[in-house]
Specification:
The protein is α+β, with helices and mostly antiparallel strands. The protein has one domain. The chain contains two helices and four strands; from the N terminus they run E-E-H-E-H-E. A four-stranded antiparallel sheet has the order 3-2-1-4, with no helix packed on it. A hairpin with a 7-residue loop joins strand 1 and strand 2. The radius of gyration is 15 Å and the shape is globular.
């Protein structure tokens, strides 16, 4: 994962819509549950906090659905040859 990489963003306030965005922040430190990692399986649950942004022109176009600061989820494909999961299939709003 890298800065500027494309992301698919879903927003709680606009269920069913998928917005095109880019990664703007990647935490330098992994977070995980439980607090101690003792097995390889537990290490696989490590997560890095990221921030993704939607370009200002796209926000203006869909302003009736999108507000700055709304909670949502950003999805990033680590392998561009792997298709998006079924829930993200379809056109990203651009």
């Amino acid at each position: 994962m890298s800065y500027g990489q494309k992301a698919a963003i879903t927003i709680d306030g606009a269920p069913g819509e998928k917005y095109s965005g880019t990664i703007s922040y990647i935490s330098p430190k992994a977070e995980f549950t439980p607090k101690t990692v003792e097995t390889a399986e537990e290490r696989a649950k490590l997560m890095f906090r990221i921030k993704a942004k939607i370009q200002p022109a796209l926000l203006e176009k869909y302003i009736q659905h999108v507000k700055t600061g709304l909670p949502g989820m950003a999805y990033v494909r680590l392998d561009p040859n792997v298709p998006w999961p079924a829930k993200l299939e379809g056109k990203l709003l651009q």
